[in-house]
Structure formats: structure tokens, C-alpha cells
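Anyone up for a design puzzle?
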């Protein structure tokens, strides 16, 4: 992988990774992408990783595992780059891209932001596997525990809010819990609802 400096704007740990021929990724494999910013230059210097393939890129399974980083310190959890909804990152660029199975894995950030992906044809005629920031609540797991229900999600998403009301009609909802990845709700003659 070739790494070049953006003159203070590109972290030393992100940049272009080049494959001169074809790239094939099978089940169980992962392409790891670091994202520390959205800036790039026409010369290919960027604040995020990009796999540049001279031939065809084939994803027969596996995943793209991304991480969000502080552009000045990849080991710091403070000041991590959190791209806004609508931001795009072309993480793979090739003459053609074929995908028969692919999963994107990484943290949910902010108010429930994550990446959706698609294959697009760029203005230069090359194809790109593009990650686009979208707002997507993660899967919520509900399971019985000791006379109540546990509501859990395995991410840092903070958009779920649990409310309770002493009766359904007329309902007067008050917040029971918010912004925690695990909540246990025990019945106490109140109705409970979940908002997302």
C-alpha cells in the first residue's frame, strides 16, 4: 500500500492502497477502511483509505470493516471524525466491480448514523464501491429477563427512547430511559412504549 502526505491534512495512517491486477475477496475476508476525514486531492491524497484496483474487483462475500478516527491521533477516542448524513466515500475504485455478497461493519455514530453502500459509475468511467452516510437505527433485541423485558442494541446508537404511562387511555407518557444500550423494563401496571 502506498501512503503519501497531504501536507498536514492527511493522517499518516490513511490513503490509497493499490492493486495493479484484479482483486477478489471471498467469504470470511475483510477489507479494513480507516476514515479520518472527507478531504482528498486530485492527486489521490485523502483522509480515508481507498483500494484502487487496476482491473476488476470481485466481492464474493466477506465484509468492509470501517473505523472512524481522530485525524491527528488514531489511538485517541476523543475527536474522532463523524461524517454527516449524505457524506460519501469511494472506498474501492476499479475498472469494474462485481458483488455477490458483502456486509459493511463498524460503529454507529452520532444520532444513529451508519453507512449504506452501492456501486456507482464515476465521471471518469471507473466504478466505485461508495459508502454513503445514512441515518439507520440498529436492530433492537427484546428478550424476557427476571419478570420483565430487556431491550438492548449492540451499538452506541442513542435514538431509542423508552416511555411509560399509567394508562393507555388517556396516555400520559413520561421517559423511563434514554441513551443507554441496555434497559430492563419491569411491569408495574404501566404501559410502556418505545420510540425511535
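Challenge accepted. My sequence:
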Amino acid at each position: 500500500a502506498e501512503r503519501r502526505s497531504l501536507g498536514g491534512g492527511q493522517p499518516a495512517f490513511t490513503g490509497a492502497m493499490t492493486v495493479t491486477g484484479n482483486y477478489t475477496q471471498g467469504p470470511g475476508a475483510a477489507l479494513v477502511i480507516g476514515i479520518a476525514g472527507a478531504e482528498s486531492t486530485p492527486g489521490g491524497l485523502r483522509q480515508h483509505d481507498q483500494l484502487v484496483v487496476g482491473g476488476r474487483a470481485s466481492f464474493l462475500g466477506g465484509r468492509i470493516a470501517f473505523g472512524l478516527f481522530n485525524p491527528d491521533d488514531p489511538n485517541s477516542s476523543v475527536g474522532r471524525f463523524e461524517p454527516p448524513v449524505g457524506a460519501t466515500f469511494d472506498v474501492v475504485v476499479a475498472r469494474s466491480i462485481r458483488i455477490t455478497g458483502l456486509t459493511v461493519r463498524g460503529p454507529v455514530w452520532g444520532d444513529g448514523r451508519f453507512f449504506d453502500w452501492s456501486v456507482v459509475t464515476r465521471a471518469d468511467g471507473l466504478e466505485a464501491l461508495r459508502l454513503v452516510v445514512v441515518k439507520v437505527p440498529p436492530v433492537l433485541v427484546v428478550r424476557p429477563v427476571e419478570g420483565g423485558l430487556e431491550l438492548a442494541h449492540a451499538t452506541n446508537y442513542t435514538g431509542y427512547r423508552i416511555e411509560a404511562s399509567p394508562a393507555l387511555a388517556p396516555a400520559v407518557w413520561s421517559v423511563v430511559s434514554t441513551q443507554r444500550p441496555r434497559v430492563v423494563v419491569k411491569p408495574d401496571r404501566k404501559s410502556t412504549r418505545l420510540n425511535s
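A detail worth pointing out: The radius of gyration is 21 Å.
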